Amino acid sequence: MFGHGFLLSRKSLSDVSECVPLSNFGCDGRENSTTSEYCSEDEKIRRIASNPGAPMACPAARHRVVFMLVDALRYDFTQYDPSIESPLPYQNRLPVIQETLDSRPDSARLYKFMADPPTTTLQRIKALVTGSLPTFVDVSSNFAAMELQEDSSIDQLHKNGGKVVLLGDDTWARLMPGRWLRSHAQYSFHTWDLDTVDNEVDSKIYDELQKDDWDLMVAHYLGVDHAGHRYGPNHPEMTRKLKETNTRLKKIIEILPSDVLLYVLGDHGMTETGDHGGESKNERTAALFAYRGAGLSADMYGTGREVPQTDFAATLSAALGRPPPAPSLGTLMIPTLPKMSTTHTLLALSNNLKQITKYLVRYGEESQQVSLEKLTQLINMTRDQIDKSASVYTENELNNYIADVRTVTENVRNIFREVWVEFDSLSMLRALLLLTLAIFFNWLITEGIPMERLPNIFASTFVSTGLISMAVCVVFCYTAYFFELLEDVEHAIILSTGLMSGLLTCSLVIMHWDGITQRWYEGRSQLHERFSRSALVGSAAVLVSNSFIIEEGAVLSFLSLTILALIAWNVKTIKALALWVAFGAVLAATRVYRGCREEQGDCWTAGGNQPTGQASRAALVLALGSMAAVVAVARRHIGWRGYGVVLAGLFACAHWAVGWGTLGSPGRSKLLARGAWLVIVTMLLLLFRRDGRGAILPVSVCGLLLYVASSLVLGAALAPAAGLGLLAGCLAIALVAMVKTEGVTKFSLSARCSSSTICLWSLLSCYMFYGAGHHATLGHVRWAPAFHAGDPQTVPGLKYVAGVFMFLELFGFPLLFGATVPVLALWGRPASTVGPRSQLAAVFALCLKFSLCFAIRVFASALSATIHCRHLMIWGVFTPKLLFESGACAAALIGAILGAALTAWHTPSQQKSS
């Protein structure tokens, strides 16, 4: 519900721009006019251009265009500085651009091409062909492109008989199917494949340039982007790909007919790690190089001028002899168009203004995001500029007029950029209310109701009553929706079931209020209890600070270590001190794998931003060693279930070893990975086979299997981080098992279910997200794990498996720690002497507290996003943090349910009537 209100996309219109041939206009500037007045073409154009009520007139000129998109072509890749004696791998690698600018200044232009966030390929392609501003929420479909429903430059040409040829990235074919005269599209998501797509484009483009049956050729090269993703810009492979780009661009310029326009541009840039998706300057700054042998219009910008990417759609359409696409918010880049007379330039600018005016009117009719007063003001501004075109005659007047039109267009674009982040406040407040109720009442239950009462609650009709109430709410909502009494059935179901859940938990609290008050009156919180609660709440509360989010990894490590130190102080033994020291050493070791964000200054520039990539020999040895250690322990201590862990671990080691290095065998490596996954899934199912030995072994084996799964998707380079996370968890469990209260067995179990234990466990699992090299930014997401067992496009249904792999890669530790929550309560001799009912009650309380800790963090992130919805860093820091916290909460809940289910299943049935 919160995401529906917060991550809103803009209103898409189905309008299509239309233009009327000049021959259909009369001398009075009206379509199908009956006037017999004679006038020259220039006079007719002036009257059409200055008439706000006249339809758009098709431009007289129509040029062929080669649209060469070099994915992730950052602007500084195209610069040439002869004074640099030792250029970096990406510097001075495209000298053909500077040579062309120097030798043919009337035929070439180079500008900074500024992209709007999010800087992902799908959103950039949409912006390039529609001229609009794709919103943040569209990023979710980046790797599952659906057909574009809005008007675009491609559609404008295709619907009017133009022919388009496609070479390269298949995102174009999925986004705009059926528009192509010839399509040589290649699968684009093999980010470690630097050459296949580029070589395929090269094999076709030179032959296509010799043909004249097309009007537009789209050639999308991926090698530079993939080199960035795999190696970063500071690598010899980037040098190679840029030199290849230089060679092909030089050859294209040599054979290109003089009357054909060439646009070479990047859809986005890249960070110093080669990533993109956010809003940093390096990600937003791409390059635009325009060339036409017969010459271009005068350069009024100057080399290096910043131009927005939204201007490209209107410019491309004008070059192709079509009006701007209906949703375009850009203006014409006159210097990148062929030379035109003053009147034809005025006609193109008038079409641009009329299209924007129509869009303003239509958007005001379909949406109330922009106030009527502001819309009226913008419409009047565009119409005023249309009227002014009648008084433009000289070149200076034309240049001033072009500048005025650009100013008006920028004002319109800025207004829409502001209002397209409009939030559904009511949905957001409802979601925050439900989260507040859930957290408050579940906290009362876990911290107030005595543990000995919990079995009786589950033995009563409370659970069945709750399930029936939820079903009634769902049926009622669907019935109301069927009779058109409700508009949004999804929101109604969430709100009604949430309120019903709150009502039921509230009634439970009221029924047991005596026990709650008695427990609080008699209980005295110790120092480590009070500190752990404060640490959890504090770590969530400071999520309103973007600085804390950026440095969260270090803070979570400190809080985890401090909570365990206080627990060890409470135990007061040498063994507890030794365990705490070992725990600290393990957390210190994970620092090696913690990357850093671009906002972290010195860490970023010092090279701490690349914790991943191809595993080195030392990393491979560490990965194999850590997996071998776990396998040895599993085989020795967990009985028949250890064989499955051993076999899965051996498959994982073989997968890394066979696929390592340039001489590795990717096919055999993926086959071994599939073997490992088959064993893991089989063993997870076999965990539900009862053997009468209790729940501690199945839950422990589940944790080991999830560790192997996480190691697989993390890869050999980061697998040791997974081993360190597992070791840190084992040390924490060993220390928690020593906690005692008043020397009484049952109270010892209660002590393990205390706030300090579960706060430590949740903060540690949160920290391991960073300890495994992640960060809460879209640019840090590593997509390679989705393909380590095969290509999702080759087997139907495998894309869902790839989604599971990505979920494990990002949130494997909350899932692992959630599944092993029961071990906190059941490990050790004192806990094993307690009855099954008490064990189940303790496990339930711990699992609920663990999920509650993550719910608190999600609530804090949602509240932070609500407070900072207009903050400069909302899309760069706060929104990604909310998405990642929500994913971690879901993983923690799934893991806790899995661990609780295993515990309940392996508890003797005759002893657990509740």
TrEMBL record:
InterPro entries on file:
Alkaline_phosphatase_core_sf (IPR017850), Phosphodiest/P_Trfase (IPR002591), PIG-O_N (IPR037675), PIGO/GPI13 (IPR039524)
Q: What is its main location?
A: endoplasmic reticulum
Family, according to the entry, reads as follows:
Belongs to the PIGG/PIGN/PIGO family. PIGO subfamily.
Subcellular location as annotated: Endoplasmic reticulum membrane
**Known Gene3D superfamilies for this protein?**
Alkaline Phosphatase, subunit A (3.40.720.10)
Write the record's keywords in alphabetical order, separated by commas: Endoplasmic reticulum, Glycoprotein, GPI-anchor biosynthesis, Membrane, Transferase, Transmembrane, Transmembrane helix
**Membrane association type:** Multi-pass membrane protein
Where is the chain membrane-spanning? 427-445, 457-481, 493-511, 531-549, 555-571, 576-594, 614-633, 640-659, 671-688, 695-715, 721-739, 751-770, 800-828, 840-862, 882-905
Q: Pathway listed for it? A: Glycolipid biosynthesis; glycosylphosphatidylinositol-anchor biosynthesis
**What species is this protein from?**
Plutella xylostella (Diamondback moth)
Q: Does the keyword Transmembrane apply?
A: yes
Q: What is this protein called?
A: GPI ethanolamine phosphate transferase 3
Read off the Pfam families from this record.
Phosphodiest
